Amino acid sequence: MSTSAVKNHANVRTITLTAVFCALVFVVTAYLPRIPFAGGYVHIGDAFIYLAAAILPTPLACAVGAIGAGLADALTGYIIYAPGTMVIKALTALVFTSKKDRILCPRNLIGIVPAGIICVGGYYLYDVILTGSFAGPVENIFFNFLQAVASAAIFLMLGVLFDSTGLRRRMLKDF
After folding, report:
1. What is the DSSP string of the chain?
2. Does the domain at residues 3-171 carry the CATH identifier 1.10.1760.20?
3. How much is the pTM?
4. Residue 65 in this model has a pLDDT that exceeds 70
């Protein structure tokens, strides 16, 4: 295969993988069992944003977070949260790296912590903007923390699976 053919194949694969991750984040966030609360809902969609960020180039991983999670909010009755979600989930993807051979490299393991802080802090600040109160949104912090912990656990399990089976390497063949 010529160099340009390999490059075009890699571009098509990257675009396709990005679209698949957008759809996966949307479906997991919007339709898998979730726990509703006053300021939103707890879901495990962030785990798939973390996974996308550990596989795809950073700008595409940010797009996965913004598009997948933003659509979930927009199409399931939480449209008021969609703008905040798009920014928060794009920022979440920034703390992970796809430049290592393994999903569970040191940066991605450490990245779970700032990703959780971005989620919890971002939604708290967004709720403050929406409500005009610093006190009211405090009740949502626990649920956003629960979401971050659940997503971290799922990400770790998926990372072990991907790393032990070599799935990441096969997905990125020819990159």
Report:
1. --HHHHHHHHHHHHHHHHHHHHHHHHHHHHHS--EEETTEEE-SHHHHHHHHHTTS-HHHHHHHIIIIIHHHHHHTT-GGGHHHHHHHHHHHHTT--SSSSSSS-HHHHHHHHHHHHHHHHHHHHHHHHHHS-SSGGGGGHHHHHHHHHHHHHHHHHHHHHHHHHTHHHHHTTT-
2. yes
3. 0.91
4. yes
